[in-house]
Amino acid sequence: MLAALWQQPPAIKPTAEPLLQENLDGWFRYRALSRLYTLEERPADLNQLQSIEQVVAQKTIVKLALIGTVPIIGCLLGTALLLFVVIQRFISGKSAILAHSSGLTWETPWTAETIWQVLIVGFFFTGQILLPLLLGGLGINALALGSRGRALYAMSYYLLMAAVGIGVLYASLRTYRPLPDGWFRFRWDGNWWKWGLGGYLVALPLMIGVAVVNQRLWQGQGGSNPLLQTVLEESDKVSLLLFFLTASVAAPLFEEVLFRGFLLPSLTRYMPVWGAIALSSFIFAAAHLSLSEVLPLMMLGAILGFVYTRSRSLLAPMLLHSLWNGATMIGLLLLGSAR
After folding, report:
1. CA 122, 127, 131: angle at the middle one, nearest 5?
2. Do the beta carbons of residue 281 and residue 301 sit within 8 Å?
3. pLDDT of 94-119, one tens digit each?
4. pTM to 2 decimal places
5. Which of 14, 22, 323, 331 is most exposed, with the fewest beta carbons within 10 Å of its own?
6. What is the C-alpha to C-alpha distance for residues 131 and 36, in angstroms, rounded to an integer?
7. What residue segments make up the domains of the chain, in order of their start?
8. How far is CA 35 from the centre of its chain?
9. How far apart are CA 298 and CA 185, in angstroms?
């Protein structure tokens, strides 16, 4: 069809316009329709098309400016904050912000057997074996669903996994109740929101640096999160809202309770806090089952763990995690709509 428009002499079929409208997007659609209207001598339609293209181009410029400018500002603020806290650490020593609660561990009455029980049964077995078998047995095929069906499936799948995971966690720790002081603390007072927001700003330059290194290592290989590509190509507002709630609300709540609220403090029974942060970050990254994302997710997990050990409130890493996922989703939405 496209070759026929540009060949000499051009060959125009009666169905050319609806086919171009249906099968082409963005710049390609405008160029093909402009060629068609010119050949068919339809100046009114050509002027209308050019007006629409100009409006879309202006909106696209604004969206691309937001995608580029806002992260740059955040990176500058994050870099400045990172330099400040590092310099303060050298100057102020143990009274510095970075030194706050740095060596304070949790009293952990359970052993490694309980830790692996929660992780393997409550997370890996449930998410990778139990739920796929259950939903497959019910005849539910996500690939066969429509746009909203896939979004609802993704949210339902995650909520079911979270419910089972929290249930396994509760059952595993029930014999140790009441838990020692400091466990699963949601402290609304204090500076938890400052730790969450500050951690997000610091994460921006650190994650960009890791992303550059990671890109050189993998060169686009190793797999990626399929949800990101789905959101990038999605246009239905209800579906996008469901994906957004799943990524920026459900995921931070469940993953922070499991990886920062339970796993990280439990590991301090066997290793210092910095070691618990490192190991829990690796397990957090591995749990996402994407080789190419292990390094960036480890960095994100380390920042989340650091924020939690300093703030002593799960609200801080939950806020950071929600901001990170939410900003990623919004960036994808803007990028997808600008294509």
Report:
1. 110
2. yes
3. 888 888 887 888 999 999 999 999 99
4. 0.80
5. 14
6. 51
7. 2-59, 81-337
8. 41
9. 23
